[in-house]
Amino acid sequence: MRRSGVLRRLGKLQIRWKLTLGSACMLLLIFAFYHLAQYLAIEQTMTSRIEQSVRESMDTVLNHILEREMGFEEADLPVLRQTLHRLNERNQQIRILDQDGLEIAYVTDGIGEPLIQHVTAVLPELSIQSSGDAKFMVLRAPLVVLAFQGTVEIVRGMEETTLVINRMGQVMLYTGLGAVLLSALGGAWLSGLLLRPLRSMAGTIRRVREDGWQARMPVSGSRDEMDTLMRMFNEMMDDVERSFNRQRRFTQDASHELRTPIAIVQGHLDMLRRWGADDPQVLKESLQATSEEMNRLSRLVEDLLALTRAEQQPSRPEEQGLDDAGKVLEALAANVRYVHPHHPLSLMAEELAGVPLTLSVEHLEQLLIIVVDNAARYSEEGRPIRISCRLTESVAHIEVSDEGIGIAEKDLPHVFDRFYRADKARSGDNRGTGLGLSIARRLVEQAGGSIRLHSTEHMGTVVHLELPVQSITANHNKGGTFDA
User: Fold this and answer.
1) CA distances for 82 relative to 66, 105, 145, 172, 212, angstroms
2) Which residues lie below 8 Å from residue 377, measured CB to CB, with a gap of 6+?
3) β-strands 395-402, 125-131: how paired?
4) SS3 for 132?
5) Three-state DSSP class for 326?
6) pLDDT (tens digit, 9 = 90+) per residue, 235-264?
7) N or C: which end of the chain has fewer CB within 10 A?
8) Helix (H, G, I), strand (E, B) or coil at 475
9) 10 HSE (CA, 13 A, CB side)
C-alpha cells in the first residue's frame, strides 16, 4: 500500500519533474553499474599483480635454498636469516617452519607479527587474511631439502592496495553523485526547454478559449520536431477556425432560408384564421402560396440532407465507383429528357464507353441532375442543353453547356457557396435553394475530381467536370478490365 501511494504521488508530478527525476535515476543506475564494474576490475587487477609478485618471491626463495642445499641446523640459521633478509621485499615477511609447524627462521620488512600461525603446507596454498583493518596475502609452499621437510610462508601486506582501492571508490562515489546532481540540473533545464512549446500551446489554447479562434502559437523557424508540432498545431487551428466559420455561416444561412418560407406559411395561415377563410379567392391564393413554400421548404431540407451525405467521405472510394461511364450517362440523359421535355438535350459520350470512374452511379446521377436542372431553370423553353464528354489519360471530362441567361461576372466567384443565388434576374419565379452547386462541388471533390464554371451574361453557361478514372487494378478487382 505504501509503495502504491508513492507511485500515485509520483504519477501526479509535472512532466518536467518526471523527466528530471527519471534522467537523474537513470544516470545514477548507469554510474552505479559502471563504477561497480570499474571498482571490481581495478581490485581484481591489483590483487592479481600482488599475487604474481608473491609467487615470484616464493619461487626466488625456494630456488635459492634448493640450489645451495642450505642447511637448517642451529649453526646454519644465521646464514639462512641473512639470505632471507636479502631476498625479502618491502612490506613482506618470510617464515620457514619445520614439519611440526615450529618456526625455524623469520624475517620481516614493514610487517610486524600479525599472522604467527603454526601451519604446514602439503601443497602450495594462497589465501587473503585480515587482522583488524589490515589485509594480507599469505602464500605457503612445502620445502624439502635433503632430510629437512618444512614450509615456506610469505606474507605480503595489502595496505597500499587497499588504500588505493578505497580512494578510488571514494572518487567514484563523489564523481557519481556530482554527475547525478549535474544531470538533474541539466535535465530540469532541458525538460523546461523541451516543454516550453507545450506550455506555449497550453497558453494558446487558453487564449483561444477566452478570446476566440485567432490565437496562434509563435513559430521559431528552427525546423525541429517542436517547430513542426507548432506548425501543425497552427494549421489544425486554421482548419478548426475555417470549419467553425463554415458551420456558423451554414447555420445562419440555413436558419435564414428556413425562416423565410416558414414566415410566409405562418402569415397566410394567420390571415386565413382571421378573415381569409371566408373569401374563396383569398383562400385559393393562400393555399397555393402555402403549397409552393412547403415545396420549397421540402426541397431545401432534401438539399441539406444531400449536402450532409455528400460531405461524408466513403471509406474506400474505389469500391464506390462505376464500371461504364458512357452507359450510365446515356441512361441518365434519357431520364433527364423526360424531366425537362421543353429543352432539347444532346449527349456525346462515345469516348467514355467502358470507362470506369471513381464516382458512384448515384452520385453521378445526382451531379448530372443538379447541373442540367440549373441549365434548364435559367434557360428559355426550346433552348438546347448539350452534354459532351472526352477522355484524356486518366481523367474523364464532362461539359454541360446551355444558352440561358448566364451569370454576372461578379457572381461567378460565389456560385459554389452555400445558399448563394445570383442576382434577382436568375431567381425570379424559379427560386432554388442555393445548395445545388455546393452539393455538386462536394461530390466531385469527394471523388478526387474538380468542377469549374464559365458563364457570360445572356449567352449561356458551361460547367466543366473532371472526374478521375479508376485504376486498372481497382477495376480488375471489381471484375472488369480497362486500358486508358
Assistant:
1) 16, 10, 18, 44, 101
2) 430, 432
3) unpaired
4) coil
5) helix
6) 888 888 877 777 776 676 667 667 767 777
7) N
8) helix
9) 11
Number of neighbouring beta carbons within 10 Å of residue 384? 14
CATH number for the domain formed by residue range(s) 316-477: 3.30.565.10
Categorize the per-residue pLDDT at 424 as very low, low, confident or very high, splitting at 50, 70 and 90.
very low
What one-character DSSP code corresponds to residue 430? S
SS3 at position 13? coil
User: What's 2-165's CATH class?
Assistant: alpha beta
Single out the residue of 467, 258, 220 nearest to residue 361, CA to CA: 467
What is the C-alpha separation between 82 and 64, in angstroms, rounded?
12
State how far the alpha carbon of 309 is from the alpha carbons of 23, 145, 251, 256, 474, in Å.
52, 111, 17, 22, 24
Name the range with the highest mean pLDDT among 79-88, 253-262, 424-433. Answer: 79-88
The structural domains of the chain, with segments of one domain joined by +, span: 2-165, 225-308, 316-477
Question: Order of strands, edge to edge, in the sheet holding 385-392?
Answer: 345-348, 385-392, 395-402, 460-468, 450-456
For 191-195, which contacts have Cβ atoms below 8 Å and span 24 or more sequence positions?
191/15, 191/16, 191/19, 191/20, 191/23, 192/16, 194/19, 194/226, 195/15, 195/16, 195/19
Cell numbers standing for residue 38? 570499474
pTM of the prediction? Answer: 0.47
d(CA 153, CA 121): 9
